[in-house]
């Protein structure tokens, strides 16, 4: 069975979706990602969807689920590269993807994740000195 | 006036992807704008999944339709599944009998110019959508 590759980059995971996903492939991405977050104790997940020509309610729900699952596993998800036509369609469809951080491109997405990971580390340092 | 017509089966998950690609090809043929293409293909994706998951599979037929000088694309999704007993409820945002978000029918209705649904319990469901250029 085909799988969407997940790349480890420091304490983050990178996924670029470059195929028109059928539903089972989307489900297996969910499983693979959560397994890898746990395995590498990743703090951030970047999902680039610039190659996706459509995001329907199933794919949208899958992306929202990934964000929620990674949050529970102490990682932050950033979605990057959504095409304007896809954004217009998603909103009209009735999905607004609440709780998902987005960035225009991979560079900005990585910056956002780095900031997030750094903030968390700083917060932990403060906790340590106080205790 | 029917210029062209083709029918495709929807029986496995991969077919939903194929339906998206076919719908896209027709939209390009009719020179729809990118936003219109994306909206129509997304609606087709929702309806193809409905046909598969709620209807137990079925078929989609595509044809180019004309109304005066206007040309449009008509897609018909048909299944012989259990049908829908309460159409009004099924068309409500957020109502779902599956594991989805309940946006399939209501959402696709918003993405197209014409939307028609016919369904009887035990008789299957037929959804017709049209997008005019």
TrEMBL record, chain A:
InterPro entries xref list: Bact_StressResp_Reg (IPR051932), STAS_dom (IPR002645), STAS_dom_sf (IPR036513)
Residue stretches making up the STAS domain: 2-113
Transmembrane parts of this sequence: none
Protein name as annotated: STAS domain-containing protein
From TrEMBL, chain B:
InterPro entries, per the entry: HATPase_C_sf, HATPase_dom
Domain Histidine kinase/HSP90-like ATPase residue range list: 35-133
CDD domains for the chain: HATPase_RsbT-like
Alphabetical list of SMART domains matching this protein: HATPase_c
Protein name: Anti-sigma regulatory factor
Species, as recorded: Edaphobacter paludis
